[in-house]
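Table S2 (continued). Query chain:
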Amino acid sequence: MLSDLFQKTLAGAAATGTTLKVLGEAGVIRPHHPVALARAAKTLKDWGTGPAGGFAAAALLDPRRTAVVDELGSLTFDEMHRRSNALARGLADLGVGEGGSVALMCRNHRGFVDASIATAKLGADILYLNTAFAGPQLVDVLEREKPTVVVHDEEFTQLLAKADVGTSVLAWTDGEPEGPTLESLIADNPDDDVEPAGTHGRIVILTSGTTGTPKGAPRSEAGIDAAVSLLSRMPLRYGWRTHIAAPLFHTWGFAHLALSMLLGSTIVLRRKFDPEGCLEVTQQEKCDSLVVIPVMLQRIMALPEKTLKSYDLSRVKVVASSGSALPGDLATDWMDHFGDNLYNIYGSTEVAYASIANPVDLREAPSAAGKPPYATVVKILGPDGKELPPGETGRIFVGNGLLFEGYTGGGHKEIVDGLMSTGDVGRFDENGRLHVEGRDDEMIVSGGENVFPKEVEDTLMRHDAVVEVAAVGVDDPDFGKRLRAFVVVNGDVTEDELKAHVKDNLARYKVPRDIVFLDELPRNATGKVLKRDLDTE
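Corresponding output:
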């Protein structure tokens, strides 16, 4: 049994039966030596439940358990703890401290984790930069956030040269670097425990930036609530090996890094995603779960059938996908190949997790966003702010204990009766499943009828020749607005054939005015289509 002190720290003074049940089923509540529990409880009290306290507590409870596996090898929780102690001292010498911040522009590798823990131990904020940022976006974000130090992979040196970054530290390097590196700071400093900071830093996740300069959405420590929310509808278990293919700088990738502190997970990382490489590492590393964004699933399923059949993923019990909607029949296609292990999570940087679709949901409604997890309220509101009944489409509002605090540059999401807008529109079906129909600013009125691009996109995705699709509103002389579809195909198909396919499945006014064939759709590093970069003239 857990000691009273550790149990209160872990589950909170007001822990409910559901919380303890979920944690018990996940294997979080488990026997440990009373001395180790007491030390872990004090660590969490002193350092908080973020990266500093979470990884330090894990190092006390399971010091020899493997924490990270990347291209350089493996590190235990104890090694990660000691490395971050040394790195924290090195960053402090560069001016990082309470009230400061460190920006990270790193791919998925140990350096990302090292820098995150070390920065948290100093009580500074951690700002995660998108590795696909263009120069102007990077300049704008860094000018607004003004980090004390920027930690980045060597490949981003030239890109960062356009911005005033002040002090920089290299993370992943391929040659003989000039200036400080994470490894040199770790090697040059003692690795014994550092004193707890007086304040706990925040995690600043940037929005996707699909409509402009990305905004910083800071979060204080979510504590146990964030984990219980996910675990209530997704059966992750203690001690699993998890391949996090999704970018760690993204809300979804970071969520599983944070979960690893609680679940004692071994996280398997690779710097860059490759469709077949993802299958290969998941199989070779004997992973129990796989964390992805939907475009990764699309690219895996586009592999030749012979390639798909050559990999055995029978050990994988959870494939956790989030970041955008699952298009067409992607969900059932995946499960037909690899088993009923797919979970689709709908949420945003601002509201965290709004709903989770499990394999049963996805079998019955492949594009469904699922049902709200524990301690989460989702409502569909009409223009007057009143809740709409099932079947009616309106704006999606979410309430939970994980809502963000407002953007770092000012501004906030709309709030109605304590519920925050996601910026999307959707509906609940008769089974209580949420269906997201698109962004509230993407809907068009065509011939007096409301048309949502996602419905047309899903229909086109169900054509055998279509690999990817994005639809946007354009002016139409007869209907006021119509959709223009941009498609990537893998076979011989004409524009007229695709229009006929839409007409056979949807109302006539939903048929795109024209269809443009592309080699690929413009996407950011988290897989979201950059519709602003499509030709709508």
